[in-house]
Amino acid sequence: MRILIADDDPQLVRALRITLSAHGYDVVAAADGAAAVTLAAQTHPDLLLLDLGMPHLNGVEVIQALRGWTTAPIVVVSGRTGSADKVEALDAGADDYVTKPFQVDELLARLRALSRRIGPAGGDPVVTFGDVTVDLAAKAATRGGTRIHLTPTEWRMLEFLARNPGALVTRQTLLKDIWGSDQVTDSGYLRLYMSQLRKKLEPDPAHPRHLLTESGMGYRLVLDPAAS
Question: Which secondary structure element, helix H or strand E, spans residue 41, and what is its range?
């Protein structure tokens, strides 16, 4: 697996290169945001580690540029601990957020988890409910054959539910998966994104049949309401 590291701290890049190479990863590195975008286009990494505070293009701008053409997992590794920075990066399309300083074992575990979650493209299932098809490999949802535009956060919420059809997914689980922290509290974010998903995917958003709320607990994706 090839990993691109984008960080303007040469000591950190060197340490990560040594550690990741020792664990079998092929590592390429860029010292600023513009170089990261160029190198990503040239080398097509399987996963990217990005700092937020880089020169030329910052981390969020790099994520936005990359998400125009790649679905490779992006992990932000940053010294910024504010929830606003995390939300901005994740909304832009990052898959995870690790705060500096970090334990190497934790970072490696997160990389392994992302590798399992994304998996080989051919192994990802296609989930259908009503006239909606969710292609987990292509990271796309269609309704009646027409592709539905979803924001990165809407997609992550739908993807998590689609990977666990029929199961209750608690609010805290979704908050941790989407925003990457147990400390984030639900201030109406999940209700807002669920409302948007229902408008885009449910035949009657006011009376949902598939994207259901379990009062006081979380949400559930029901593929076939008649069988429930």
Answer: helix 33-43
DSSP annotation of 193 reads H
The two three-digit tokens of residue 220, written as one number: 């559930």
In what helix (H) or strand (E) does residue 99 lie, and over which residues does it extend? Answer: strand 96-99
Q: Which of 8-22, 124-138, 170-184 reaches the highest mean pLDDT?
A: 8-22
Give the predicted TM-score (pTM) of the model: 0.53
51 neighbors 89 (Cβ within 8 angstroms): no
Answer for the pair 54, 79: CB distance below 8 angstroms, yes or no.
Answer: no
Q: Sign of the C-alpha dihedral, residues 33, 83, 199, 177?
A: positive
pLDDT value, residue 86: 86
For each of the domains in the chain, give its residue range(s) and CATH number, in order of start: 2-118 (3.40.50.2300), 122-227 (1.10.10.10)
Phi first, then psi: give them for residue 138, nearest 5 degrees: -80, -5
Token look-up 């990494």 returns 45
The burial class, CB within 10 Å (0-12 / 13-18 / 19+), for 198 is: buried
Residue tagged 């309401």 (tokens) = 225
The kind and range of the H/E element at 2 are strand 2-6
pLDDT (tens digit per residue) in 89-108: 988 889 889 888 888 888 99
Distance CA 65, CA 211 (A): 31
Summarize the confidence of residues 39-45 as an average pLDDT. Answer: 88
What's the CA gap between 4 and 116, in Å, rounded? 18
Residue 98's H or E segment, with its range, is strand 96-99
What's the angle, vertex CA 86, arms to CA 51 and CA 80, rounded to 5? Answer: 55
Under DSSP, is residue 116 helix (H, G, I), strand (E, B) or coil?
A: helix
